[in-house]
Write a structure and sequence with these properties.
34% of the residues lie in helices and 25% in strands. The chain is of the alpha/beta class and 511 residues long.
Length: 511
C-alpha cells in the first residue's frame, strides 16, 4: 500500500485573522508535488502546520494524517520522532538553520540519531556515502567542515544529505533554491528529483517560482490569500481554463527578450583597470581583478555571476563606496559628478524598523526646506506607483513589494543618473519581481536613467538587459550585447549560465 501524507480542512489563524483556510490535499510516496503562490499566500504556513512548528501565537485546526495516524494529536515528544525520521525538511537558507559550531559530520550523526564516539565511528561509512550521494566530494573533507565554510550550493547539498540521513518517507522543501544562482538552482533541482525518484520519497516543494518546477513536479497546487485555489497534474498547468491566479504566476514566469537600446549614447562612467584587494597590503587574492568597462546613458547593464565572483565589489566601486586598489573610476563629466544610487537586496533591512518611512527617507532631502522635502518625497512615491499615505507607515506595515518600491523612491530623491540594483528583486515572488523590473524600465524611459542590474537569476538579466557583463572568480570574463551573449556565449561560465535557462519555454519578443 502506498504511503500517504494527508491534510484535511487544515486552517491556521492568528486570533480572529485567518491565514490559511480549510486546505485539503495529499502527498503520496514517490511523487513530487509543487505548492506555488505569491509571497504571503500561506505556502510556508502549510509546511509548518504539517510539521507542528507554528509559532505559539498561531493556532492550527483540522486533520493531518500520516498513513492514517493523526499527527495533529501527537505530543511534542511524539512529533520529535516523526520530524527528521519519517518526515524531513529542506530549508531556504541552510546556513541559518544549521548549527554554526557543528561540523557537517555532526549534523549527519544527529539526523541519524547516533550519539557517542563508538556510534559515530560506526556510521562514518554511511556519512561519507551520503555526502557522495548528493555530489559532495572529497566527502571526508566536506564532513569535517562547518556550514560557514561551504558555498551556498554546497550547503544546500549538505542540507539534502541531512534530510536523507534519517531515511524519510516524505520531504517538505521550503524554497530550497530561491537564493541560488541559475546554475546551482538547476543542479539542486535535478539532484532533488533524482533522489526523490531513486528512493521513492514523497516531496512537497514550496516555491513562488512556477517556472523552476514545471519539468520536475508531478502535480501543482496553487495557493492564494490563504486558500488552495487550483491544483492539477503539471501537464495541465498551461491549459487556458486554469484559475486566474495560476495564469498570473505563469504569465510572470514567461521569459521575454526586449529589443536592446542602441549603444551610441553618452558614456557616464568608466572603470579603467579598476581592481579591489581587501587583503593586508594587497598581498592576497583580489576580490576584483583589473576591470575595464563603460556605462552608457539610458542603458541597462546586466551583471551576472556566482557569489564571490566580484560583481557586488564592482558595483561598490562604481558607486564610490569603495576606492579601487589599482586603476580608477572615471567620471566623464568632471564638472558635474555622476549621481549614483544603490538599491539594496533586502528592503526590510534597508529601513529602520523603529521609524516611519517618511522619517527614514527625509535624510535624503535634509538640505531642502521642510515643505520642499515633503513635496519631493510625494513625487518620488508617486513615480513608483504608491500612495503618499505609505510614508507614514513603519516598514513592518508594508509588504515586500511595497518596501522595494519605497527603496527605489528613496534612491530617486537625489535625482540620480545611475541606479545600481544589487539583487534587488531576489526576495520577491515572480509577480512582484516582474512589477519591479517593469517599474525600473519605465523609470529608465521617463527619466533617462542608466541601470546596473546585478542578479544571479538569468531570467532577470534576460528580461531587462541591453548589455551583459559576466564575472567569474573576480574576473570580467565577458561583456557583450544581450542577444549576442544569449546566441553565442564565449566563456565556459557564460555557456553554463545560458544552458541553465529553460530552453523549452516560449520566448516572446517585444519592442
Amino acid at each position: 500500500m502506498t504511503k500517504e501524507l494527508q491534510f484535511t480542512d487544515l486552517s491556521v489563524s492568528a486570533g480572529e485573522q485567518s491565514l490559511l483556510s480549510e486546505a485539503r490535499g495529499a502527498l503520496r510516496a514517490g511523487e513530487l508535488v509543487a505548492v506555488v503562490g505569491r509571497s504571503g499566500s500561506g505556502k510556508t504556513l502549510l509546511t509548518k502546520a504539517i510539521m507542528g512548528l507554528l509559532p505559539d501565537q498561531l493556532r492550527a485546526e483540522g486533520q493531518i494524517l500520516l498513513d492514517g495516524q493523526r499527527l495533529d494529536q501527537l505530543s511534542d515528544k511524539e512529533m520529535d520522532a516523526v520530524r527528521g525520521g519519517r518526515i524531513s525538511m529542506l530549508f531556504q537558507q541552510p546556513k541559518r538553520v544549521m548549527n554554526p559550531r557543528m561540523t557537517i559530520r555532526a549534523h549527519l550523526l544527529e539526523a541519524m540519531g547516533a550519539h557517542g564516539w563508538g556510534k559515530a565511528k560506526a556510521h562514518e561509512t554511511q556519512i561519507l556515502s551520503l555526502l557522495e550521494e548528493v555530489g559532495l566530494s572529497p566527502a571526508k573533507d566536506i564532513a569535517a567542515k562547518r556550514p560557514d565554510q561551504l558555498s551556498g550550493g554546497m550547503a544546500q547539498r549538505a542540507m539534502l544529505a541531512i534530510a536523507l540521513a534519517g531515511d524519510p518517507e516524505f520531504i517538505l522543501a521550503d524554497e530550497p533554491t530561491s537564493s541560488l544562482d541559475s546554475i546551482l538552482k538547476a543542479e539542486v533541482l535535478q539532484l532533488l528529483r533524482h533522489k526523490q525518484q531513486e528512493r521513492g520519497v514523497g516531496v512537497l516543494f514550496i516555491t513562488h517560482d512556477i517556472a523552476s518546477i514545471q519539468h520536475i513536479a508531478d502535480r501543482v497546487v496553487v495557493v492564494s490569500a490563504g486558500q488552495i485555489v487550483d491544483q492539477c497534474p503539471t501537464a495541465q498547468l498551461f491549459s487556458k481554463d486554469r484559475h486566474a491566479k495560476t495564469r498570473e504566476l505563469i504569465e510572470a514566469s514567461l521569459p521575454i527578450i526586449r529589443s536592446p537600446r542602441a549603444g551610441d549614447s553618452v558614456c557616464l562612467l568608466e572603470a579603467a583597470g579598476a581592481s579591489k584587494n581587501y587583503t593586508r597590503r594587497a598581498k592576497g587574492k583580489a576580490a576584483l581583478n583589473p576591470t575595464t568597462l563603460r556605462l552608457h546613458s539610458g542603458q541597462v547593464l546586466g551583471v551576472v555571476g556566482r557569489s564571490g565572483s566580484g560583481k557586488s565589489t564592482f558595483a561598490r566601486l562604481l558607486a564610490g563606496l569603495e576606492q579601487p586598489t589599482t586603476g580608477q573610476i572615471i567620471n566623464q563629466h568632471d564638472d558635474v559628478p555622476t549621481q549614483v544610487q544603490i538599491i539594496a537586496q533586502e528592503p526590510f533591512s534597508s529601513f529602520d524598523p523603529r521609524l516611519t518611512i517618511r522619517t527614514s527617507m527625509s535624510a535624503a532631502v535634509h538640505r531642502l526646506s521642510e515643505a520642499d522635502g515633503r513635496e519631493r518625497m510625494k513625487q518620488a512615491v508617486t513615480q513608483v506607483g504608491l500612495p503618499e499615505e505609505l510614508l507614514d507607515r513603519r516598514p513592518s506595515q508594508c509588504s515586500g513589494g511595497q518596501l522595494q518600491r519605497l527603496a527605489i523612491a528613496r534612491a530617486l530623491l537625489t535625482e540620480p543618473q545611475v541606479l545600481i540594483c544589487d539583487e534587488s528583486t531576489s526576495a520577491l515572488d515572480s509577480v512582484a519581481q516582474r512589477h519591479i523590473l517593469d517599474l525600473l524600465l519605465e523609470l529608465r524611459d521617463k527619466m533617462g536613467l542608466s541601470l546596473v542590474v546585478i542578479s544571479h537569476d538569468m531570467d532577470v538579466i534576460r528580461y531587462v538587459s541591453d548589455n551583459v557583463a559576466v564575472f567569474f572568480e573576480g574576473e570580467l570574463v565577458e561583456h557583450r550585447r544581450l542577444t549576442d551573449f544569449l546566441n553565442a556565449p564565449l566563456h565556459q561560465h557564460s555557456q553554463d549560465l545560458v544552458a541553465a535557462l529553460d530552453a523549452t519555454s516560449a520566448v516572446r519578443k517585444v519592442s
